[in-house]
Amino acid sequence: MGKTLLDKVWDAHTVRELPNGQTQLFIGLHLIHEVTSPQAFAMLKELGLKVKFPERTFATIDHIVPTDSLARPFQDDLAEEMTQALTNSCEEHGITFFDIKSGEQGIVHVIGPEKGLTQPGMTIACGDSHTSTHGAFGSLAFGIGTSQIRDVLASQCLAMSKPKIRQIRVEGKLPNGVYAKDVILKIIHDLGVNGGVGYAYEYAGSVIRNMTMEERLTVCNMSIEGGARFGYINPDRKTLRYLKNRPMAPQGGAWERAKIYWNSVRSDDDAQYDDVHEIAGEELEPMVTWGITPGQSVPISQPIPDPASAPAEERVAYEEALRYMDFQAGMSLEGRPIDVAFLGSCTNGRISDLRLAAEIVKGKKVSKRIKAIVVPGSMEVARQAAKEGLPEIFREAGFDWRAAGCSMCLAMNPDKLQGRELCASSSNRNFKGRQGSPTGRTLLMSPAMVAAAALTGEVVDVREVLK
Amino acid sequence: MTTIKTSIETIKGPGIPLRANDIDTDRIIPARYLRCVSFDGLGEHAFEDDREQDKSHPFNKDIYKNAKILIAGSNFGCGSSREHAPQSLKRWGIDGIIAESFAEIFFGNCMAIGLPCFTVSQADAQRLFQIVEEDPTAELVMDVASATVTIGDTVIQAGMPQGARESLVNGSWNATAILLQAEEKIQATANCLPYIGLFNMSVAPQFD
Ligand code: SF4
Question: Is B112–A16 a contact, with Cβ atoms under 8 angstroms apart?
Fold first, then answer.
């Protein structure tokens, strides 16, 4: 019987089986940021332990950094303190820190792939649930808690239970105006926000194969929103082409040896899956969320569903979501006025996302009623954008062009919604209060849809704009 | 091989009485202390708001400042799941807790940091309150394996699930320690991974 990539990479990283039935798994790449790691370093110190493989941990700051002024000390004392704490920990333990002065800072899930740190056949852990992003390269990547960060720092290992595996095949061809974000929103819509609990998702099929690496990152990023801690795509020629000549990727003879390993980790053709789910690419439309979980979404042409039509156990949640969003069943999202447009995040803050949005807003103006901001995913994304003249395009259209970070994805920095504002957002979570105002409201959609909504000041079908 | 002292067999020391039920984690450590870079320093803020409002709070009294064992009423540690709550108690100096009952998440968080939690009957809790109030220096001994509390000649049978007691005694509550036990195997696994050392090693890639 053939093996899946999950089986192969899991086996290669198994140190031993633990008495409690879990696996002691070696972690090939550990990424840390300022919010969840400081306590872990403190615990390490308390235990009198050192970082075991400091060369396998890389740090950056993203969650709490301001995006308007990078002058130090930061205006927010806490942001300054957390940044300082991470700087000190990295210095003390000899960990590479992509901080602002290195010019390489960015959202942890943007810089991993960009630097060539994220590679096929690796196990990757980070104290952040969206670590599944890195699975786009054919790695087993997953989020961990603070005490587990301590475990990785101390031992480069984690006690883990092996997940089951579900293959999700997206076949056919996506219509114009339908993007990777729509694909993953549709998957979460169909399988539910808890549908992936206990599973790793292997994304496959011609639609996935035809995606660029950045599109694949968008899909894997939101695996966790469907409950799956892991999401991955088998590496192929595109994966290798993307990695070639990245700063941390192997070079020369090592590159040739790496290719052999990377190709060997692909799932075998006769691999067995615990479950298979198929989606027809042609039938997809731009998706928009109407509720307070990433699973509460509709294709843009469809009205908001009636709670009465929902499965019994979800009815109460539907009603609560409608109340919070101040929407009614049967209402169309098309034409809903928005207050804020946010382009960015680890889901859609990469150069291809910004290029696409820039193409839509070029030579046009953002609606006067709204606030629109673009936050590049990393300093490297910002540099590349500058080379291509994107900041000018966005500024001329009326967008605020900011410095790299998580920003309004979770609003731990000063970028926040105010009051009941409704935000068209390219991020990944529409939870109550997620974007900084306890009563603020989020509509998740593709970056192209966000750009189109920014221009009209209301939710529009981007397919009409592209015609 | 790295060794960490992880076996928790007995907790000894004076007690501190908290005669109250339903103490939630917000009262143990107020929410404003969650935005922090380390659990260090949380100790001094334990019960901060309660202590402000009640000058006679036991945590304000010098006679209890060397206490190691907290004695409380029922449903101790209810509310928010913050690990900061047991962390702040531990940092204040508490090594063990005896109460009529515990909130489930709080109990789990205590286990993760090696803080034994015994349950006792209401009558035994009252006896312990009285003993500790009469003699704040009296030494209590919590024996984890047998779940007993000893003060002088008095022995009280307490409760704690057997699995939890075993993992404290054999040290397996501490994942870091368990993982580090396999030090040689960790290195061996790393050595077999072609990407360690950026593929510059002679080990042949696997799976072919
Ligand atoms: S961009 Fe948002 S989801 Fe991504 S790491 Fe930052 S806060 Fe988390």
Answer: no
Per-residue pLDDT 10s for chain A (467 aa) are 899 999 999 999 999 998 777 899 999 999 999 988 888 998 899 889 999 999 999 999 999 899 998 999 999 888 899 899 999 999 999 999 999 999 999 999 999 999 999 999 999 999 888 999 999 999 999 998 778 899 999 999 998 889 999 999 999 999 999 999 999 999 999 999 889 988 999 999 999 999 999 999 999 999 999 999 999 999 999 999 999 999 999 999 999 999 999 999 999 999 999 999 999 999 999 999 999 999 999 999 999 999 999 888 789 889 989 999 999 999 999 999 999 999 999 999 999 999 999 999 999 999 999 999 999 999 999 999 999 999 999 999 999 999 999 999 988 888 999 999 999 999 999 988 889 888 999 999 999 999 999 999 999 999 999 98
- Give the closest residue to A59 by CA, choosing from A96, A20, A22: A96
Look up residue A356 and give its amino acid: L
As a three-state string, the secondary structure of B65-87 is CCCCEEEECCCECECCCCCHHHH
Closest CB from B37, B190, B205 relative to A257? B205
Verify whether ligand 1 is closer than 6 Å to residue A410 (CB atom): yes
Q: Kindly report the CA angle at B65 between B64 and B71, in degrees rounded to 5?
A: 45
Chain-chain contact of B38 with A260 (C-beta, under 8 angstroms) = no
Residue A378 DSSP class: B
Whether B189 and chain A come into contact, CB under 8 Å, resolves to yes
Residue contact A28–B207, C-beta within 8 A: no
Pairing relation of β-strands B96-99 and B154-157? unpaired
- Among protein residues, the one whose CA lies closest to atom 2 of ligand 1: A409
Q: Is A415 in the pocket of ligand 1 (CB under 6 A)?
A: no
Count Cα neighbours of A204 within 13 Å in the Cβ-side half-sphere: 20
The pTM is what? 0.85
